[in-house]
Design a protein that fits this description.
Structural class of chain B: mainly alpha
Oligomer: heterodimer
Mean pLDDT of chain B: 80
Order of helices and strands of chain B: HHHHHHHHHH
Order of helices and strands of chain A: HHHHHHHEHEEEHEEEH
Largest interface: A-B, 59 and 68 residues
Structural class of chain A: alpha+beta
Helix content of chain A: 40-55%
Distance between the termini of chain A: 35 Å
Strand content of chain A: 15-25%
Shape of chain A: globular
Largest sheet of chain A: 7 strands, antiparallel
Distance between the termini of chain B: 53 Å
Strand content of chain B: under 5%
Chain lengths: ~250, ~180
């Protein structure tokens, strides 16, 4: 049984919910207290058992396709709109095309700015003497470390059987928005994964999908209200593979 | 009904909701304990969520929102009404550390997957669902609070009681050889 001082907080610690100061104090206490260590071990094993046992049921492909079909975004074109467009004066068409052109140009430059900033974050982290602030290959250590440091939570994939290794993570900022920066390794190459809330003007309008920018391959997508970016100098296939793992975990 | 959110160009309901499909089905199946009911529940959840998506606030948690819809749909179903037993008023005193943890109980916690699945099935639904949200979905207390519509203090005490109840069930399965 854990000691009196920490027993009531053990679950919160293992769930990654303890305040940062308490979590640090408990982490310092743990190696010297056999009772707490044994209790913590038992509870971690219980958590793991429930996690494994709980992933039990898989939906049929038929159900997935039925649900996907029922919610698929319908084409937004209004049939009545087409003939009105045709009938509009040439001037309006011209104004429209200029507007679209300006919009696309603005979108394009914003996209470039975001990718440049992410490439900078990736390179400067790798060049730093301390690329990550939490050093661990264990997602159950890295994920809780972000609790209280960024205003959202995210899931990290199980990497067993893949070529990727988690090296750790750090807090980062994109356009004054805090996010998680995770570094993975694949065959001696480092790949950055950035996760932000998808509500900043900088990221919200970015189209999802693979991009080649500044000699880096980048994949980005939105999931559960979060915007993920995977950035690295590895092949598009590697970027894609890591992205798939993250998508499945998310 | 259009599945596109006009406020965020390019982001559709489908983009946000389909990645949650597998986990929502798993959760629905655990709640209903029946394949056909789980399938109906998931379809109902997606239909309701799509209808309500236009009023969804982007700064709220989409995953918690989807789970809340699924759970509320379950609660109003015939099975949900029958199985969602009331549990006692919860207080923080339930947060006290569970019982003794000995090397024997550690062994107990390494119980086989089937044993744990059976014990989860036998748990009262409020305990089963909170354990699944915490351990399988890895939701934060805040997300669980939003999903279940209960304060964070209650999330903590209910989790503590759910874990204790699970230990008790597992120790029974184990023939009572290991103390709880």
């Amino acid at each position: 049984m854990a000691c009196e001082q920490w027993g009531g907080k053990l679950d919160a610690y293992l769930d990654g919910e303890l305040e940062a100061a308490d979590a640090r104090a408990f982490a310092a206490h743990l190696p010297g207290c056999a009772a707490c260590a044994a209790d913590a071990l038992g509870r971690v094993q219980m958590k793991r058992s429930v996690e494994l046992a709980g992933k039990r049921y898989t939906a049929s492909a038929e159900l997935r396709s039925k649900v996907a079909k029922s919610i698929a975004a319908k084409p937004r074109r209004d049939a009545g709109w087409a003939w009105k467009l045709v009938a509009m004066p040439a001037l309006l068409v011209l104004v429209l095309s200029v507007g679209v052109n300006l919009y696309l140009r603005r979108e394009g430059s914003q996209r470039q700015r975001v990718y440049s900033e992410l490439a900078d974050l990736h390179v400067s982290a790798l060049a730093s003497a301390t690329p990550v602030d939490v050093i661990s290959t264990d997602r159950h250590t890295v994920k809780p470390w972000f609790q209280g440091k960024i205003p959202f939570s995210f899931n990290l994939p199980e990497l067993q059987g893949s070529e990727f290794t988690l090296l750790g993570g750090r807090v980062t900022y994109l356009a004054q928005t805090p996010g998680a920066h995770l570094i993975y390794q694949v065959r001696k190459h480092e790949v950055s994964v950035f996760i932000f809330q998808d509500r900043g003007e900088e990221t919200a309008s970015l189209p999802s999908g693979p991009v080649h920018a500044l000699s880096f391959n980048v994949e980005n997508w939105t999931q559960n209200g979060l915007r993920y970016f995977v950035v690295g100098d590895v092949s598009p296939d590697d970027i894609q593979a890591l992205s798939e793992l993250l998508r499945d975990a998310g | 009904m259009k599945g596109t959110d006009e406020r965020v160009p390019g982001v559709t309901f489908e983009d946000l909701a389909m990645p949650l499909f597998d986990q929502l089905y798993n959760f629905a199946r655990w709640l209903t304990q029946d394949t056909a009911e789980a399938e109906d529940l998931v379809q109902e959840t997606y239909a309701k969520a799509l209808r309500g998506f236009s009023s969804f606030q982007l700064d709220t948690n989409f995953r918690a929102w989807m789970y809340r819809i699924l759970r509320n749909s379950f609660l109003s179903s015939r099975t949900g009404l029958k199985t969602m037993v009331a549990i006692d008023e919860e207080t923080d005193e339930k947060l006290l550390p569970a019982e003794k943890t000995t090397p024997e109980s550690i062994l107990m916690e390494q119980a086989g997957r089937e044993q744990v699945q059976q014990a989860l099935t036998e748990l009262a639904v409020p305990f089963r669902e909170i354990l699944l949200l915490c351990e399988v979905e890895e939701m934060s207390y805040q997300e669980i609070s939003e999903t279940l519509g209960i304060p964070i203090g209650t999330v903590m005490s209910r989790l503590s009681r759910a874990r204790k109840a699970l230990r008790t069930l597992l120790s029974k399965d184990d023939g009572g050889r290991h103390g709880v």
